[in-house]
Automatic annotation (TrEMBL):
Coiled coil: none annotated. Residues 273-390 form the Erythromycin biosynthesis protein CIII-like C-terminal domain. This is Glycosyltransferase. It holds the Pfam family EryCIII-like_C.
Length: 408
């Protein structure tokens, strides 16, 4: 979102970034004016349970539902109130999961665009419901299966989800939704979907206003301070040892989920393992094996060209970054959208879905060994990366936003 804001500001638009205090500096650095969450409850997205206790550790069905009801739905009316009070605006570009932006656009009567910050979840006759772990296939039989699978999902939406959506709409001064369910929170004007055909599933009924724009990321930062062991990366490559990068991103950061199993499983493998903790001190990992290095954060723009395999819990941003660099993946996703990310990576042929968020060490090692031994996965990662680049990224997203603005 900050990358899109920065590009629009660079083109001369007057841009306001409505975001929590944690990200104020990022939007101001991009050239946007900061509009704080005031009526909306502010929070730290890396410490959700501090503000929303029912989210707990973020794991399991109850936590996922609490994330939807307490965080996404619970902050939406406040977001809308903040935006409406700060207007007028000519156009709103909203994070798909910041529902208040959609409400404000509708209430203000201005065009608004949705940026899909997770894989596209729009319903399609060609796909099973998001979160249902069945194989995506084509043909009449698959459509019949999908229709049956959608029936209980639509019932659950009608009973548990839609009343909450209607509640936040009413709080924003809006009537009943024209489109029921979560799909009604996507813009009917413009959807900027991160990803590309070949990574996302084909849909014969994709709306014309939905555009794949690749990866929305800011320009590479200037080289910063590197860890003392950084030269070990080039040395490993020179010796023919693959570099395996393991990360859990910045939100689901319990090292027992993936980092420690990966370190244990790869401890005596002929690779160099590079871990990032997402901000925690590296001593949370315990004593590192001789073939491992760790840091709180690392610059992916500099790291990924040196990496042979990317092991992740399935954050969409990290996945897009790895594949844009042509790096094949091993994904261990369990919460929120991460299983969907893992399934898309496997479906694309660019990596392996471990089908769990807490893999055993031997499974991590077997998956990394398989990726290293199958050149086709690296080829597919490169092909997907080329498609992401061809989709246009931030400049293409800004072009589409400007086209919408000019049509208004």
């Amino acid at each position: 979102m900050a990358a899109v804001a920065g590009e629009l500001a660079r083109r001369g638009h007057d841009v306001t970034g409505h975001t929590g205090a944690k990200y104020r500096g990022r939007f101001e650095a991009a050239g946007a004016r900061w509009l704080p969450w005031t009526a909306a409850q502010d929070y730290d997205d890396a410490r959700l349970a501090d503000t929303f206790p029912r989210v707990g550790d973020g794991k399991g069905i109850k936590a996922n539902f609490a994330n939807f009801t307490d965080v996404l739905i619970g902050t939406a009316a406040g977001q809308a109130a903040d935006i409406i009070a700060a207007g007028p605006f000519d156009l709103i570009v909203t994070d798909q999961l910041a529902f208040g932006g959609a409400l404000a656009g509708e209430r203000l009567g201005v065009p608004w665009a949705t940026v899909a910050v997770i894989p596209l979840t729009l319903a399609s006759r060609d796909l099973p419901p998001p979160g249902v772990p069945v194989r995506v296939s084509t043909g009449r039989a698959a459509r019949w299966r999908n229709a049956l699978l959608w029936q209980p999902v639509r019932l659950a939406n009608r009973l548990a989800i839609q009343p909450r959506i209607e509640g936040i709409r009413a709080a924003a001064g809006l009537g009943r939704a024209a489109v029921a369910g979560p799909d009604g929170l996507y813009s009917p004007h413009l959807v900027l979907a991160q990803g590309a055909p070949g990574l996302d599933y084909p849909r014969s009924d994709l709306p014309a206003h939905v555009h794949y724009v690749g990866r929305l990321a800011p320009p590479p930062a200037a080289p910063g301070e590197r860890p003392a062991w950084w030269a070990d990366l080039a040395a490993a490559r020179a010796e023919g040892r693959p570099v395996v990068h393991v990360t859990q991103g910045t939100l689901d950061v319990d090292p027992n989920d993936l980092l420690r199993p990966a370190l244990e499983g790869l401890a005596d493998a002929p690779v160099l393992v590079v871990c990032t903790t997402g901000g925690a001190a590296t001593d949370v990992l315990g004593a590192l094996p001789d073939n491992a290095r760790a840091a709180a954060f690392l610059p992916h723009d500099e790291l990924l060209p040196l990496v042979s395999v990317f092991v992740s819990n399935g954050g969409w941003g990290g996945t897009l970054g790895a594949l844009a660099a042509g790096v094949p993946m091993v994904v261990a996703g369990a919460t929120l959208d991460k299983p969907e990310v893992a399934r898309r990576v496997a479906w694309s042929g660019a990596g392996i879905d471990l089908r769990t968020g807490t893999p055993r060490p031997d499974r991590v090692r077997a998956a990394v060994t398989r990726v290293l031994g199958e050149p086709r996965m690296r080829e597919r990662a490169a092909e997907v990366g080329a498609a992401l680049t061809a989709a246009g990224g931030v400049p293409r997203a800004a072009d589409l936003v400007e086209e919408l603005l000019h049509r208004a």
